[in-house]
């Protein structure tokens, strides 16, 4: 009995460690004082200021538009190349898969400065386009890694059967292959989207003046010191993550159930 | 048609993955020179420059802090993963989700949260002031940076260990118990060796971002606190010495490759866990 309560207490402590900072952020986003620790009453002022801040609203716009564009483009290129890689000869496959792992394994800072070096080397002005290209680049590998396992599960003769029965290759792809691998594609797209929203380091090096995403804005605000607007922003972002997680969790549960049926 | 499908990515990865790394490599092994044709000269001067005491100190500090944070993550993460793996399935998924959720919050916000707690005008110091105690210097030191690293990367340690522990063959444990081993021996001789692959991937997943970070050290360590990541950032964004910056980036990559090499070698010796990958 004592052992059990010690175990429970330990788990509680770890969860406290993980959540205390987030709870503090959320609680003090409603505090009427600039200071953390002294409670001067409830207010929604910081939220009002958050929505009034042009700097934050602009970076929110860039974050979402970059995340949407980069995840859609990365999903298309990634899915196509996953199909290509799956049908490749072994040594070529190995090379491309290893190259594909480079952005995953390299520290973000190396990927960031490498891309920055490239953009400056070919004299592209750093800004929205370079930011988008960088995000697509680090997103594609994750899409490929999400789609490839689904392709391996696909019975090889299924597309052939469709082709024998007179389907055009595109029709066979659309009607036979795509529905089978679509869970992988959607998972890949979601991973790409969240990675893009969350990225700081690579964006920091590949963007130019005037274009900054939320992470970069938070970084520059945080360097100036404590700002309750960031608390308000954290609360809203935490809520969106929570909702997104619940949706994804439901999706993967469905996925598991589907697997059980087979 | 299927073979053509990968061509866009072959071109894409050549331009945006391979060429940039080659450029960094070339910048790293050259220095500007007015006499040669391209304005560049092959030279290892920058590697030599890195051997100066200031830079070596930064290098050791980065490696040291990353090792300490990784160890703390193992020490507090392993028991937690064990407890998590032992809870019943329904509760387990819920708890697992609770571990993952903070990981999905923007990591700058997670780091900023500690600034507001530890800072001079932060939560802890305000509470201390209220009860009449002097303020503490909690921010801008090694401890704060380690705390930030552990906080940000702990889930990366918990998840792989947890995965290996839940996939472990329970009959092996029962066999050991039947043969008279007590709980301690079962853990030492069976559970821990079998869970090593998880520990090792946890170590790599914590050590890598910890050794290359420049954000945590900047926000929680203050302006004077330098890690190798800050050196790279400084060279590229402020001093504009891309040659030296690339050299440091190459050294950083070598460190990580070495760490991964050591880890995978260690992993192969433990052939008992190989099947669990």
Write the SSE topology.
The complex is a heterodimer of chains A (262) and B (277).
Chain A: H1 2-28, H2 45-52, H3 54-86, H4 90-105, H5 108-121, H6 128-153, H7 157-164, H8 169-198, H9 201-206, H10 214-224, H11 228-261
Helix pairs in contact in A: 1-11, 2-11, 3-6, 3-8, 3-10, 4-6, 6-8, 7-8
Chain B: H1 7-28, E1 30-32, E2 40-42, H2 45-50, H3 53-86, H4 89-104, H5 107-118, H6 123-130, H7 142-167, H8 170-178, H9 183-212, H10 215-221, H11 228-239, H12 242-269
Antiparallel strand pairs in B: 1-2
Could you describe the 3D structure shown?
The complex is a heterodimer of chains A (262) and B (277). In chain A, 81% of the residues lie in helices and 0% in strands. Chain A is mainly alpha-helical and 262 residues long. Chain A has a domain at 54-225: Orthogonal Bundle (MetI-like fold), CATH 1.10.3720. In chain A, helix 3 (54-86) runs parallel beside helix 6 (128-153) and helix 4 packs across helix 6 (128-153). Chain A is globular. The two termini of chain A are 42 Å apart. Chain B has 277 residues and is mostly helical. Helix content of chain B is 76%, strand content 2%. A two-stranded antiparallel sheet of chain B has the order 1-2. The two termini of chain B are 34 Å apart. The interface between A and B is large, with 78 and 82 residues. Chain B: One of its GO terms (biological process) is transmembrane transport. Chain B: The chain crosses the membrane at residues 7-29, 63-83, 95-115, 144-165, 186-208, 214-232, 244-263. Chain B: Keywords: Cell membrane, Membrane, Transmembrane, Transmembrane helix, Transport.
């Amino acid at each position: 009995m004592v052992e059990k309560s010690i175990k429970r207490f330990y788990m509680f402590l770890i969860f406290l460690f993980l959540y205390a900072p987030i709870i503090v952020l959320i609680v003090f986003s409603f505090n009427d004082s600039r200071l953390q620790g002294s409670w001067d009453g409830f207010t929604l002022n910081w939220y009002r200021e958050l929505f009034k801040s042009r700097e934050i609203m602009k970076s929110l716009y860039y974050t979402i538009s970059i995340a949407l564009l980069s995840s859609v483009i990365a999903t298309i290129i990634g899915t196509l190349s996953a199909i290509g890689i799956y049908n490749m000869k072994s040594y070529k496959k190995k090379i491309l898969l290893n190259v594909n792992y480079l952005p995953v394994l390299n520290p973000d800072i190396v990927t960031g400065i490498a891309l920055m070096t490239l953009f400056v080397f070919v004299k592209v002005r750093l800004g929205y386009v370079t930011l988008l290209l960088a995000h697509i680049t680090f997103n594609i590998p994750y899409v490929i890694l999400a789609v490839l396992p689904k392709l391996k599960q696909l019975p090889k003769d299924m597309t052939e059967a469709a082709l024998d029965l007179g389907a055009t290759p595109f029709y066979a792809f659309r009607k036979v292959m795509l529905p089978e691998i679509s869970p992988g594609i959607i998972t890949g797209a979601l991973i790409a989207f969240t990675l893009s929203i969350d990225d700081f380091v690579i964006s920091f090096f590949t963007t130019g003046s005037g274009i900054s995403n939320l992470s970069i804005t938070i970084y520059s605000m945080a360097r100036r010191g404590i700002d309750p607007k960031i608390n308000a922003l954290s609360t809203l972002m935490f809520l969106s993550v929570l909702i997104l997680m619940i949706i994804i969790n439901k999706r993967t549960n469905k996925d598991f159930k589907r697997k059980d049926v087979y | 048609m299927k073979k053509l499908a990968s061509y866009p990515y072959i071109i894409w990865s050549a331009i945006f993955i391979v060429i940039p790394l080659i450029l960094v490599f070339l910048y790293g092994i050259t220095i500007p020179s007015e006499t040669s044709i391209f304005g560049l000269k092959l030279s290892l001067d920058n590697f030599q420059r890195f051997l100066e005491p200031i830079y070596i100190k930064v290098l050791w500090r980065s490696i040291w802090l990353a090792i300490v944070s990784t160890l703390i993550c193992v020490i507090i993460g392993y028991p937690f993963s064990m407890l998590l793996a032992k809870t019943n399935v329904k509760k387990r998924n819920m708890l697992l989700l609770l571990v993952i959720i903070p990981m999905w919050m923007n990591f700058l916000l997670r780091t900023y949260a500690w600034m507001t707690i530890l800072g001079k005008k932060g939560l802890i110091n305000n509470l201390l002031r209220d009860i009449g105690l002097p303020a503490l210097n909690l921010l801008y030191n090694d401890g704060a940076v380690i705390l930030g690293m552990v906080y940000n990367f702990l889930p990366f340690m918990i998840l792989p260990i947890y995965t290996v522990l839940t996939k472990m063959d329970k009959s092996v444990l029962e066999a050991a118990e039947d043969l008279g081993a007590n709980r301690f021996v079962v853990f030492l001789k069976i559970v821990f060796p079998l869970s090593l692959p998880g520990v090792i991937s946890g170590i790599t997943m914590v050590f890598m971002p910890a050794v290359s970070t420049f954000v945590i050290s900047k926000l929680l360590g203050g302006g004077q606190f330098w890690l190798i990541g800050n050196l790279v950032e400084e060279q590229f964004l402020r001093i504009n010495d891309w040659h030296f910056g690339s050299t440091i980036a190459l050294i950083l990559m070598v460190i990580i490759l070495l760490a991964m090499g050591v880890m995978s070698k260690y992993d192969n010796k433990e052939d008992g866990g190989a099947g669990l990958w």
